Every structure is written in structure tokens, then in C-alpha cells.
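Forum > Structural Biology > Help requests

Title: Can anyone predict the 3D structure of Protein kinase domain-containing protein?

Hi all, first post here. I have the sequence for Protein kinase domain-containing protein but no way to get a structure on my laptop. I'd be grateful if someone could post the C-alpha cells.
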Amino acid sequence: MTCFPLFCRKHHSSTRHPSEFDGELSGVKNVTLFSYKQLRIATDDFSPVNKIGEGGFGSVYKGRLKSGKMAAIKVLSSESKQGVREFLTEIKVISDVEHENLVKLYGCCIEDDHRILVYNYLENNSLAQTLLGGGHSSIQFNWRTRTKICVGVAKGLAYLHEQVKPHIIHRDIKASNILLDKDLTPKISDFGLAKLIPPNATHVSTRVAGTIGYLAPEYAIRGQATRKSDVYSYGVLLIEIVTGRCNTNSRLPIDEQYLLERTWQLYERKELVLLVDTSLDGAFDAEQACRFLKIGLLCTQDALKLRPSMSTILKMLTGEMEVDNNKITKPGLISDFMDLKIKNNAPKLHPEQINAAYDYVLSSDNTTTLPSTSSSQGNSTFTTVAYDQSI
Ligand SMILES: Nc1ncnc2c1ncn2[C@@H]1O[C@H](COP(=O)(O)OP(=O)(O)OP(=O)(O)O)[C@@H](O)[C@H]1O
Ligand SMILES: [Mg+2]
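Reply #1:
Sure, ran it for you. C-alpha cells for Protein kinase domain-containing protein below:
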């Protein structure tokens, strides 16, 4: 397959409008521009047989490029109002980024309304479908593998947060965005792409519903992401990997449904070890596992400034730095935060009401109206808090 690096691209498609993005192409050296036809051939005309997933961005297909390389081809929803320029700006940033723990972007396709991203294909799917997939995977996640995954994801995030200039905030760290290669090396996917999400409300609410347990309260309420909101999501993920449990499980008894609340309870009782995944049959390093859970608690603290940076987290994971027990404060939970911020003493919300509220919160920039808990109560209003740029 002939692929044209953007800096020396040829107009091999009559449907593209080069004048639209000529100015944007200067300086972009690492992105290959695929034609729509090339990707149609690679995926057998986007055959449903080749569809491997569906996410907030649209559908993902497995495809074989002409070079023989396998690729994951992500077709952004046609509802995306993203212009070519914004699309390219994001691609430019991501194409310069390369790290062992990040998925590699091969290139993209921009033709008419098509916005397609082409990634390195990863053989072992995502952590959501394997480790947290309810026993449908044949992969054995022993303690060593879990350690490697936790450290690998931390390295990838530390790189995005601290080494790449300008820094990249992921905004959607979660189990389905951690992909595994054939050696179970974790690769963070979708980094820097949050801005490409179509701006319609239905889409946002679908996405938010799927991500609810990972959102730092202040991010959910203000709708603005910081590196420390990524750290919060990483903390939730870390606890999921150690426990082998999703952050929310409505089939469990009520006081065990929310993993973060449960972790805090057991931490207070000095019984953290009870949370470690029972499928390990006791074959794990208890000191290390409890340390990881405590790091998860450090990451999910309510106060942004108390959450450690990713490079500090990395040092604590590897044992280079001690975890100071005295520094751990109660996790910031979205339900607590909302109770605090809602005026008019609104009653404590049920999970479905919290879900609905997330949808409202995330579709707003500023002051947000919360759906009422019953039709007779009227609406309560959130007060937004100033965004701390220094975090
Ligand atoms: N590079 C890849 N290699 C292999 N499979 C992939 C790749 N990228 C995505 N997938 C598969 O496609 C699925 C959907 O991915 P996608 O990123 O669109 O959605 P998501 O991660 O579930 O949600 P979100 O839109 O929030 O990221 C993933 O869960 C994974 O199974
Ligand atoms: Mg994803």
C-alpha cells in the first residue's frame, strides 16, 4: 500500500479538499495519510466481520494494510463536527509521541466527512474485556503480570504528563483504554483524542455513563480535566487491577458495590489484603499488593494537591519511595461531592440519579442544573468552583 507522509503527500483522491488543510500540513512529519479506498480494502469494505469494537468515537475495525501489517481502524462518528484543522492539530500532537506503553498511531484518513484513525493492532484486547471481562478470557493474570501492567500504565502516563511538551492529559483512563500486546505489555490508547469526540449530548452521555467510576469529582462537576484528574482515574484502575473487580458492581451487597468506598473501609480496618483478587489463590506478594492499593487511595483523594504526580507514583510502585500511611485521606467520591455542592439540601442521590446528573454536568460549561430527585422537588443547582490552572 502506498502511504503518503503528510509533508510530501500526493493528491491521490479526487474527493479530498487539499486547500482546506494545506497550511496545517507543514511540520507534520510522522503521520501517514491513507486514502479512504485503502482503508476500505484493508477492512473488506468495513465488513461487520472485521468489527472489533465500538466506543465513544465510533466503530473500530481490524484490517490488514497493504504492507501486511495489522491495524485497528477507528472510524470517527459522522456526527463529529470536528473540522479538518482541529483534527489535524490533535493528530500532529499525537504523532510525535512514542513510548513503549502507548498505542502507536500509524496515520489517518481525511476525505469528505470521513475522519479515520489507523493504529497499531494489539492482539490481546483490552483490560476491560480480559481481566475485568467476567471470566470470558483465557489469559491468566498472575501477580507478576499485574505488576507489569500497573507499572507500564504508570510509565505511559508519566511520559504524557511530564515528558511530552505540551503535556497531554488523557481524560479517559479506564480499563477499556488499556490494550495488551502479545506479551501482555500494556498500551494506553486514545491519548490526546478526547477533543475529537463529537459534541452532541447523546454521545457524551453514553461515554460518561461508561466511564462514571473513573471520573474525579471535580472533573465531573467542572468538566475540566487536569493531570490530577488523570491521576484519580489511574488510582481507580490500579485498584481494579489488584482486585480483579470493576469499580462498580451492582450485584454485590450495597456496602461493597463501589470499589473505592470498599477500599477505604478495609483500609480503615487494616484489612486491605482481603480485597486482593481471590482468583490469584493467594499467589501474590501481600506487602506489594497492599502498597498498590494504598497508592490507589493516594491517587483518588478528594484534594487535587494531595494526589501524587505520576512520576512519584511510579517510584512508589517500584518501591523506590515509601508510601506514607499518614498522608492517605478519604477518597473523593462523586456522591459526597454532589451532596456538598448541591444547594437547597437536596437528599442523597441514588446511583441512577447520579448517572443522570453526570450527563447534565458533562454537557455544561458552567452552572449546571441537576435533574430533580422527584417531580415535586424542583431543580437544584450546582455551584461551579474556579479551575486551578496550577495543578
Ligand atoms: N489498537 C487496537 N488494537 C486492538 N483492539 C483495539 C484497538 N483499539 C481499539 N480496540 C478495540 O476496540 C474497542 C473499542 O475501542 P474504543 O477506543 O473505540 O472504545 P472504548 O475504549 O470502549 O471507549 P472510549 O471511546 O471511551 O475509548 C476496544 O475496547 C478494543 O477492544
Ligand atoms: Mg478507547
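The radius of gyration is 22 Å. The mean pLDDT is 77.
Shout if anything looks off.
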